[in-house]
Structure formats: C-alpha cells, structure tokens
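Repro case for the chain-ordering regression, as requested:
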Amino acid sequence: MSLLHRLRRSPFWPMLWKEFIQMRRDRLTFGMVTLFPAIQLVLFGYAIQTDVRNLPTVVLDDSRTTESRLLVQTLANTDVFRIIGEVPDRAAMQDAIESGRANAALVIPPEYARQIAAGATARAQLIVDAADPQSSGAALSGAQLAAQARGVAITAARLGGPLDPPVDLRVRPWYNPAQRSAVFIVPGVIGILLTLTMTLITSTAIVRERERGTLEQLIVTPIDKTSLMLGKVVPFILVGYIQMSVVLGLGWLIFDIPLRGSLVLLYLLTSAFIVASLGVGLLISTLARSQSQAMQMSFFFLLPNILLSGYIFPRAAMPEPAQWVGLLLPLTYFLQVLRGILLKGVGIEHVWRNSLWLAVFAVILLTISVRRFSKTIE
Amino acid sequence: MTATPGATPGATPSATAVKTVGLRKTFGPITAVEGLDLTIRRGEVFGLLGPNGSGKTTTIRMLCGLLPPSAGGATVVGFDVATESEEIRRSIGYMSQRYGLYDDLTVDENLRFYSTIYGLYGEARSERLERHLADLGLAERRHQLAGTLSGGWKQRLALACATAHQPEMLFLDEPTAGVDPAARRAFWESIYAMARGGTTVLVTTHYMDEAERCERLAFLSRGHLIGVGTPAEITTQFNQPTIEDVFIALQAADEARV
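-- result from build under test --
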C-alpha cells in the first residue's frame, strides 16, 4: 500500500468526522466556543485597569490663601487625584482615610503662603493610603509632578518671566500613547482564553469517553493511538481560531485595539500555541480518572498562567524563581508574539525565537501524551 | 507463531479459536482470574457462567487485549494476546455491558464510524451496512440518535457495530442484561446465524435459559474454572436436573472449600 493510500484509509479520518458531528450537536460546547470569549473579553477588558486615576482625595487647608488654592488646583489637574472635599481638622482627615472614603489627603499648614512670600521653601503634606502599593506609586509620581509644576510657576513669577528648565526629560509612551490598560490586556485575553478552553475541552473530551464506556469500545478496535488522539483534538484547533477571532474582532471594535502587524503571520504562529495547549489537555486526560478531576487540573494549570506569564504583572518585576516557572508556560512566549505583532507591528524577525519555543512545547507535549496513553483499560 | 498482516482467517487455520494456559490476573492484592485453562473451538457458541465478581469480564478483557495478563498466556484466533494484540483487534468483535455507543450520533453514524475504523470504505461499506441494517431490523431507525433508542434497539445496534467488519470471533459481555424477552430471543437468533456462518462466539451471561442455548459452557467462581462441558454433559456430570441447579451447587461447593 502506498503512503498516500494508507493516509487516506487512516482511522484518523472517521475519528475526526465523528468529533465534528458531536461538536455540532453539543450546544453547550458551541456556546462556550462563541459566548465565553465575548464575556471574558468584556470582563477583563473593562475591569482590569492597572493605570491608577481619580484617587479620592480630601483637603485640609489651614492656609486658606490664593497660593494654597493654586496648589489644590494643580494637584487636581494631574488626573491622579480627584478632590472630593475639604475636612476641618486632622481627626476628620484621619476618619476620611480610615473609612475608605478617601485614598489620599492634602495637608497645607497655615504658614504655607507666608513661606512662599518670604522666598523660603513652602512645606505641605500628602498622606496616601499605601496599603495598595499600585495606588501609592501613582500618588507619589502625581504629587511630584504637581510640586514641580507649582515650583516652576512660582520661580517664574519671582524672576518675572517664563523659565527654561535646565533639564527637560520628556517621556514618550510608544505603542500605547494613551497608556490604556485595555491595549495591554486584550491581546493577553486571547492567550488566557486559548489556554483555558484548549486544555479544558481536550482533557474532558477524552475522560468523557472513558466515563461513558466508549473509550473501551474504541481501544478494542484497530485504531492506533496517534489517530485516536489527533482525531480527537484536531477539531479543537478550529475552536481555538474561532475564539481568537471573536476576541480580536470585539477587541478592535469595542476597545480600539491596534492591529499593527500581519494578521496572517499571527494566525500562523498561533497554531503552535494552540497545539501546545491541546498537548497540555491531552496530558491531563492521561492523568485524570474523571471529568471533574480533569477540570480541576485544568484550572490548576490556568492559575500560574494568569500570574506568571506576564499577562497582567510584568515578568521583569518578579523574583527569579517565579521568572523561571514562567519560562515553563507556553503562554509566556505566546504573549510576546501576540503583543509584538498586534501592538508593535513587528514581523517574524522579532518573534521567531518565541515561536520556536512554542513549537518545541507542542512537539514535546504531544509526544509525551501519546506515549502515556495506553490502549489498555487499567 | 508468525502472523501475516491481513491474512484471513487467522494465522493458523486450526480448529481452535481460543486457548488459554494458566491465565491469571491480579489487581493489587486481589486475584480476579486464577490459573485458567480453556479451549474454545472454532465456530462454537461458548458460554461463560458465574456470579458477579467471578472473573468473567476480566477474562474477556484479557482475551480482547484490553488487559495484559499477570501470568500465563492465551491465543485468540491464532494470535498471542501478549504480543499480537493489534492483530487480534482486527479479527474480533467486542460488545461490552455498556455497549460503547455514541448517544449523540445516529444509528447510521455509529455504524459508519465503527465500520470505517475497521477499514471498510466505499461501495463495500455501503453494501455491508445496508445489509446489516436490514438484517437487524434497524433500517427504519437509521436517522434516530442512539441515545433515544430503547434498551433492545441499543443492544442490536451495538451488535451491528461490533460485527460490521465480519469478525472471526465475537466477544459478548452480558449482552442481554436489562433487555426484554422478545429482544433477547431475536438477539440469540442473530448470534446463531453468525455462528452458522463460521463466527466463534464467547458470551457471558446471568440467564440460565441463555446458558442452555450455548453449545458448551464453562463455570467460573471467584476466578477459578470449576466445570466445562455441553449443557447435557454438565447436568449429567454433576447429577443435577438443570444448569441452574448445577450453578448453585458448584458455587456453594467452591465457596465451602475456602
């Protein structure tokens, strides 16, 4: 028999055909394929805001002068702070922060305006609820910005003309000039979504056959392990691409996510990531004895993906061991590919290394799973 | 024993379909089958009897290559279960207690799926499937989902799926559990028809009337073979009026021994 003939008669094809029919008849899976990505996108895209804005702030102004009002105004202009009101004394200020009504408080002492008039350094205080380091970091830079602005304005007034600063360091935020979280998060949603659904549906699909007794029937047939497992998972590649397209389309429509690079390249490289994720699902299916076990393992796998891949938290800021663990996750590499192509518009010359790693993951995971799968029922 | 792929029927045209020698299976500390010596002749309808947990299903699973034996050996249609399980899979049909049907596929689709897995294609497949559907009376229900069939129809469909590739040997594990008497009779008629066509059948059962329909019987109790022969030989040998009495007496005796 020629190779082509053997390929055409491979039991892979009936397996594939059966999976497609079953997928079409399973409304739950179909809903998961289309609705789930949309819901996830909206949830993550709107909810995850790592840029801190509008910190509720109270003012304790004991100076009550034009100068003190100008300082309050400058602070409010930074967008980081939102002045929610004045408080009469320190006790009231403390109460505002302790109750959570305010995250920050500006305290201006009585001598503030006098010190400015005398040409001395005027002192004021900004108290921040630093229990959340992200907010306090933003408050810090916001306050510095405001102080600087006031300082320049006051010095300029004293010198009686506009002031040219000796050093002017301008920050240019490339790729995401408005610094919107959604631009960063939405491409990641594609990766997280594919990780979850590919591992989950693959692992449960095989375990389901085991539970229903059809796997026992299948393994007394002459079907080979490779055809059985590939026929089972190849339809999910299509599912993965549908999900990705839903998120990309909605991300572009709702969140105005840039699509700078080549979509063809992105879709091509994504196949390696999808297959790697299917491989994880297959591996889980050879370990789990029931569908609920398979689900638990899939979610257990998802957690480090959310935390360590760079999906939300920058990997560079992590302690080294956490970075090493991140290197074991296909998503870590895929995120680089996704953000590189979508946000920076780079080509294969900058993402080939990450893509190669994805291909390595795919091959290793598939090989281990097929090896581990045994055509016996022990 | 050498096997040439695709050779039919079997590698050795001998009169023996199944031969086990000292076949044994343990699951941890539990011995499911112990020292089983059994010979089944080609074209025979052979019954495996025994109470729950006596090792019937384990024996069938070992013979089908689903479970590797812990000790001893067996050949099925001339192939060794330990080393030639893929050749065995090509030559046998297997119907488990759970039927192994896809509830979300139609009658037609289930049949098509299993027969294609067994390498049936094109005209040959269509012809075979049409005949099968007609023989088993499934033609009118061909577009019905398997999950919506009643027990008797499911059983017929499972038999059709297990035999679409015309296996030399058929293993049936409690095929008639939970099926009404009329369906059971029809089922046995199909079994006899296949045996007349040369197929060897190994069937496990709880029903004594079915046991009496077998040409030869083997009794298992707690993993041991405690009696083999035709129904008449067995009733004479053990001096009991019916197979059911033999069953109860043998089981009581075997349990008393330990």
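Ordering looks correct now. The CA atoms of residues 221 and 251 of chain B lie 6 Å apart.
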